[in-house]
Design brief:
alpha/beta, Rossmann fold, 5-stranded parallel β-sheet
Length: 265
């Protein structure tokens, strides 16, 4: 079998077959990307959180979660390529997997690195032209996106009990900036800092966004935040649009523009 050396986004050298035929994806947004690149039966395994596309969620073998990979299920599928992500997967899982299989890792922090990931996955899987076309379409969509000017300050909550927010260096943070939203927690080294209700109130954002994932914020939580920050608008948002960095990025600019046009702050 002819092997080719690729450098992943963590600057690791990975030897991968010229056209891998048994791919496992450990990242939901990258699973959807593989589908949109037309890889079909070449993807043999996904995680239990890879909910898009639904047909794969129902039919593909699952190898555990993003944070807890089942090694025996992976071995049974005999992958010739595993695709993971620095933030979403556990280091110990990746270290165990790379002893037995080619493991290519992404490290996505902003739109530019997401587009780079898409192009590199195209190179890896022999779908270079499709990946390049997808990358160009996403670039064009973001170029046409509406944004708020002057910017509004925002707190983007991803978890409850304790409250956690998207912070500095996260992909969510970059998406907020592209909406014309200034993250009040874009400081320090903590990517997803825990905050107290008092710290949220003292940050005094113009608007609070409650993500649908990883914590499933619902309408009932809006009132809770209204009590902490009286008078501050609290909005539920689709977390996939703010945090999925694969082909779903095609849909994100139109979603953002629709949100922003409907916000009266």
């Amino acid at each position: 079998m002819t092997m080719f050396s690729h450098t992943d986004q963590m600057r690791r050298k990975v030897n991968v077959p010229a056209a891998p035929q048994r791919i496992i994806s450990l990242v939901p947004s990258q699973t959807e990307l593989l589908y949109d690149l037309g890889l079909g039966e070449r993807v043999v395994g996904i995680t239990k959180f890879c909910v898009h596309p639904e047909i794969w969620f129902k039919s593909k073998h699952r190898v555990g979660g993003t944070k807890k990979v089942d090694m025996d299920k992976v071995r049974a599928l005999k992958p010739d390529l595993i695709i993971g992500n620095k933030e979403e997967n556990e280091r110990k899982d990746i270290q165990a997997l790379e002893k037995e299989f080619p493991v290519w890792m992404s490290d996505v922090r902003d739109l530019d690195s997401a587009l780079e990931m898409i192009r590199q996955v195209g190179e890896l899987t022999g779908t270079k032209d499709k990946a390049e076309a997808l990358s160009n379409r996403i670039t064009d969509a973001f170029a046409k996106q509406h944004y708020i000017d002057p910017p509004l300050t925002v707190a983007y909550l991803i978890w409850r009990e304790p409250f956690m927010v998207a912070g500095h260096g996260t992909f969510v943070n970059d998406m907020l900036k592209r909406c014309g939203l200034q993250n009040v927690f874009d400081e320090g080294d903590a990517r997803y800092p825990e905050i107290t209700p008092q710290e949220l109130a003292e940050s005094d954002p113009d608007i609070i966004l409650l993500s649908s994932e990883p914590y499933p914020f619902k309408e009932k939580h809006v009132q809770e935040l209204n009590m902490i920050c009286p008078g501050t608008p609290v909005k539920l948002v689709d977390g996939e649009m703010f945090s999925w960095y694969g082909s779903r990025l095609l849909q994100a600019p139109a979603y953002f523009s629709g949100l922003l046009s409907g916000w009266a702050v």
